[in-house]
Amino acid sequence: PPAWDRATRPPPSPLQPFGLPLAPCRFFSNNKIQVELDESSGVAMMKFKSPPVNSLSLEFLTEFSIGLEKLENNRACRGVIITSAIPKVFSSGLDITEMCGKSMEHYAEFWRAVQELWLRLYGSNMVTVAAVNGSSPAGGCLVALSCDYRIMAENPKFYIGLNEAQLGIVAPFWFKDTFVNVVGHRIAERSLQLGCLHPTPEALKLGLVDELVPEEKLMEKAAAVMAQWLALPDHARQLTKTMMRKAVLDRLVAHREEDIKNFITFVSKESIQKSLRVYMEMLKKRK
Length: 287
Description:
- It is found in: Mitochondrion matrix.
- The chain is α/β, with parallel strands linked by helices.
- It is built from ten helices and 13 strands.
């Protein structure tokens, strides 16, 4: 439906403390993600629940995209808060096992799913608020960056950033574009080259997150921010968002197949496969 159709709805009802849903509520859960939609406020809660660290596997990415599509197509939904049901981690990023020792066809399917999620999330008509309640490296950082607003739990042990360079891989141009649009060119250039993971105080200082709040206040704050954004007419906000993001989205759409081929060529190199195997072994030792 046209974006401006939603603007005729009454303003959202106040949200309960901690963002708990009000009746009537609609739930749909799958293996990796739980979704709750409070139809009276128009706000959905999307919780990652894929232990141990919410890795963005092919299954997870597919479920995420389907969940967003369902919410986008539901005229009762105007905004979504994205968070984690697993303590201390928002998302560890792309699942390394999907990129190591697999077929060319699998790499293509996986990368197309990564693209699809970003296109849906970054281009969503809904208000998207990331309630980052744990560490969020690499692809997890991209999910947060793709939202309209980022609130992170104020814990110095939590970190966020695009650290691909540390693994011997390169963040694609659309990861880079999303990062630059949030923090500016110089900060993004330095952070990407060094593969930096920024502790929460530094992430706030750089503008990588918009606010830090105590962990116990995170969902309450996310609900308050959502209510603030939804107080505006939908059509004006949506058209402004499209204007700001369209060029970045269009760039990937125009080069999508080329981007998939580049990913396959890059990830298939023996040197890259070796780096990924070394990293996977390191993760096993940590356990």
